Amino acid sequence: MSENPAKPAFGTALCALEEIANPGGKGFVFREGDALFSGFVLREGAEVRGYVDSCPHAGWPLASGPDRYLTRDNRFILCSGHGALFLKGTGECISGPCFGEHLTRWPVTVVRGIVRAG
Predict the structure, then answer these.
(1) What is the pLDDT of residues 27-78, one digit of tens each?
(2) What is the CB neighbour count within 10 angstroms for residue 47?
(3) Taking all residues of the chain, what is their mean pLDDT, rounded to a whole number?
(4) What are the Cα distances from residue 106, in Å, to 54, 73, 109?
(5) What pLDDT does 59 receive?
(6) Among the listed residues 73, 14, 10, the one whose alpha carbon sits nearest the alpha carbon of residue 40
(7) DSSP for 26-81, written as a single string
(8) I need a surface site. Which of 55, 70, 91, 100 has the fewest CB within 10 A?
(9) How far is residue 62's CA from residue 51's CA, in Å, rounded to a whole number?
(10) What is the pLDDT of residue 62?
(11) Residues with Cβ < 8 Å from 6, sequence gap 6 or more?
């Protein structure tokens, strides 16, 4: 399978770190022609992690609304479509129809306070 042409290039600035709730998440959508890339970044303090915004079970986006990727207690990533729970650190599904599967990682970094595609 070839790389998604809509996936942002290495080093692309996504947002300032302070624009992401702590803890919390922020979603991003990029389009290149007919191709679409959706991803999200989670933040805890200065640490960030990125994932492709696609449920491994159904392929739909995880959030029920803008930037709503975590459970109310901020402990897990939540798929709003069927309630699956994923570990924030690894993207592993620990509850739901995709148990044992993983979200796809999207490498991101923070450089001088700016979150960038990695």
Answers:
(1) 999 999 999 999 999 999 989 999 999 999 888 999 989 999 999 999 999 9
(2) 13
(3) 95
(4) 11, 24, 10
(5) 84
(6) 14
(7) EEEEEEETTEEEEEEEEEETTEEEEEES--TTT-S-S-SSTT--B-TTSSEEE-TT
(8) 100
(9) 11
(10) 96
(11) 30, 31, 32, 33, 35, 36, 37
CATH number of 13-117: 2.102.10.10
Tell me the Cα Rg of the chain.
14
pLDDT value of position 77: 98
Residue 85 CA to its chain's centroid (Å) = 13
Strand, helix or coil for residue 92? strand
Structure tokens at 86: 């994923």
* DSSP 3-state of 18: helix
Whole-number Å distance between alpha carbons of 118 and 116: 6
How many whole angstroms separate alpha carbon 55 and alpha carbon 78? Answer: 10
Find out whether 74 and 68 touch, Cβ atoms under 8 Å: no
Residue-range domain boundaries for the chain: 13-117
Q: Which amino acid, one-letter code, is at 49? A: R
The pLDDT of residue 64 = 86
